[in-house]
Amino acid sequence: MSLQVLTYVVVGFTFALYIGIAIWSRAHSTGDFYIAGKGVSPIANGMATAADWMSAASFISMAGLIAFLGYDGSVYLMGWTGGYVLLALLLAPYLRKFGKFTVPEFIAERYYSKAARIVAVICLIFISFTYVAGQMRGVGIVFSRFLEVDVTVGLIIGMGIVFTYAVLGGMKGITYTQVAQYCVLIFAYTVPAVFIAIQLTGNPIPQLAFGSEITGTGTALLDKLDDIVTSLGFNQYTSGTKSRIDVFCITMALMVGTAGLPHVIVRFFTVPRVRDARLSAGYALLFIAILYTTAPAVGSMARYNLINTIQPGDIGAVDGNLVYDERPDWFRTWEQTGLVAFDDHNGDGRVQYYDDRNSAFKERASGFGWQGNELTVDRDIMVLANPEIAGLPNWVIALIAAGGIAAALSTAAGLLLVISAAVSHDLIKGIFVPHISETNELRAGRVAAAFAILVAGYLGFDPPGWVAQVVAFAFGLAAASLFPVILLGIFSKRMNREGAIAGMLAGLLFTYAYIEYFKGLFLKWAGAPWGDNVAEQWLLGISPEGIGVIGMCLNFAVAITVSSFTSPPPGHIRHMVEQIRVPRHLESKQ
What we know:
By secondary structure, this protein is mainly alpha-helical.
């Protein structure tokens, strides 16, 4: 069976599974649609949360950026994993005890203000649409390669699948669909990793293969990788180039952003009890760790295989480069997507893959006819292309296609439902039509979800960056806008509505403006003038991926200051804050 036919069979089967689950668990009430009727078990919720969390950024892009950044890519591992500890300890059980449908609803009641609810919805929409742009790019990448269709067609197919189980099933349908998607994506991620680990090191456990010797060489994988990347002018794989302050800020922004992401927080509203919310976070962290501890091995093995394919002979020698006309099949197929490109600067018909930015290497390379790097490889393809580069069986390649699609669609569905709930529950019911019937609210939620899918698809056509980078921007926006007011809302009785509103606006506007200015998040003219010297213009040396920490500090400072100079919250609000934190054994007395 050909790879294309096998891919259609595997991906088609998973789509049928997802749609079947959505029909079986169709939402019949607003409780089902928004929070799955609060009847999800902690283990199932942990799996669903892990699938919701392990988006295209985790499955497709994270190992790819580790492959190209090396040590610097570890900030994503630390930040995205550590955030769940904050979430489990500081937010999840308290928000579940509060017992509402959405994050803006919590903010509205805690800060006794419709205006605060509207501002929270605005923050949520900024975060969610930024995040979903990365997911739709992931959908496009997977479909364009493995189903051999145009990116536009692939996005439309993905939008149709998400529409079916997000709009029809709501949170109930999404939850059980995400359980299935977790099983698909984790199997799809680990099986190729095991194959390649055995192939390179003889060790079937990727986490151990990461520190093992390459078979027959007596040299450790990472030592060999350091050797070959520096020979090509790239930075040493196991050493970092980012400044300490930028590493700290990116890691902190990702950690805190995790605890402020509305589509993650809402998952803890779906379990029966407060205790289950904390258990869900623990299970989610365990399920996530399987992929996150495998990613560094996948990244290093992918980079090693890529370079050995492009440089089959002596590195640095003219005849050591791949002859373009003899390029392998994987190279040809990925060229068709535009995500791998060759530009023969010196006309010698060989692929010269070196670092253009290394001035010391330029002088040495000019001696063998080098006129600049000739190969462009999109980092987002590394996980998907790795099995092909390694020559693995077609069924493994088809499996990883299904896993990549599952990762992108699971998170996209969660984000779209959060946007839908923000419009139908927080704006329509909470602000404009408070007496709307449950049937009409459910209908409005489905219409809002359908509209959000159309916007998400549009963003997927022309995303503002590679997947993990765009997702990092969303985390920064979450850290700067929602996290401080949620945390203060739980632990500070003095925080009032004026402080919350001012803090959210200050954090969101500062962080969004900074990202837009340097990266052109949605305005394509922004970020263009800086060129290669952009890092010199960053505030305190902090990149746009890490600026959410400064936005968070600004949010805290503004919120606390404004609250200090305005009236304290009413007595019943201070009492409510006390009640949220009552220990579990006293909960029955509430």
